[in-house]
């Protein structure tokens, strides 16, 4: 019995090390960690600065309130404040970079009949716009 206790005691630090590594991998991937925390999403290959410019080019301020965007105070569509903290896109799919790309490029695929129009947004433009949206926090309504 003592030998078994000694082995368990020796293996405990190794087990803790493995669990910590799994949690760090989950956090880095933007997935739930074992402690329940979630790493904030980001848009791979996106440029938030360019995204802010493209938000204006594609006319997003005509429908949305968007912090940091000049004249973006419309309420036709939902305000985009606190985007990084949102759990779902259009109340339909988890707020992940891949789902956001699809939503920006082909919103009808995610929510048929939605008022969000297909704006002809290219994949790179969607990445840039997504990068900007993922900078928006709820705490102060800005970046």
Features:
143 residues, mainly alpha, 2 strands, 2 domains, Immunoglobulin-like
Q: Strand pairing plus helix content: what structural class? A: mainly alpha
- Termini separation: 58 Å
Unreliable stretches (pLDDT < 50, length at least 5) are: 15-38
Percentage beta strand: under 5%
Q: Average pLDDT value? A: 80
Q: How would you characterize this protein structure?
A:
- By secondary structure, the chain is mainly alpha-helical.
- It folds into 2 domains: 1-39, no CATH class; 48-133, Immunoglobulin-like (Sandwich), CATH 2.60.40.420.
- Helices cover 43% and strands 3% of the residues.
- The protein contains 5 helices and 2 strands, in the order H-H-E-E-H-H-H.
- It has helices at 2-28, 48-57, 97-105, 107-110, 123-133, and strands at 88-89, 93-94.
- Strands 1-2 form a two-stranded antiparallel ribbon.
- A hairpin with a 3-residue loop joins strand 1 (88-89) and strand 2.
- Helix 2 crosses helix 5 and helix 3 (97-105) packs across helix 5 (123-133).
- The radius of gyration is 20 Å and the shape is globular.
- The N and C termini lie far apart (58 Å).
- The relative contact order is 0.16.
- The model is unreliable at 15-38 (pLDDT under 50).
What is the secondary structure topology, with strand pairs?
Blueprint: H1 2-28, H2 48-57, E1 88-89, E2 93-94, H3 97-105, H4 107-110, H5 123-133
Antiparallel strand pairs: 1-2
Helix pairs in contact: 2-5, 3-5
């Amino acid at each position: 019995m003592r030998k078994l206790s000694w082995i368990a005691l020796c293996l405990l630090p190794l087990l803790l090390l493995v669990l910590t590594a799994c949690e760090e991998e989950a956090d880095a991937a933007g997935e739930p960690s074992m402690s329940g925390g979630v790493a904030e999403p980001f848009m791979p290959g996106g440029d938030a600065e360019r995204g802010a410019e493209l938000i204006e080019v594609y006319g997003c301020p005509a429908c949305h309130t968007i912090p940091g965007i000049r004249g973006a105070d419309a309420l036709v569509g939902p305000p985009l404040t606190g985007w990084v903290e949102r759990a779902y896109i259009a109340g339909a799919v988890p707020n992940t970079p891949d789902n956001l790309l699809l939503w920006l490029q082909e919103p009808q695929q995610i929510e048929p009949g939605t008022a969000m129009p297909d704006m002809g947004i290219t994949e790179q433009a969607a990445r840039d716009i997504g990068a900007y949206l993922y900078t928006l926090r709820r705490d102060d309504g800005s970046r």
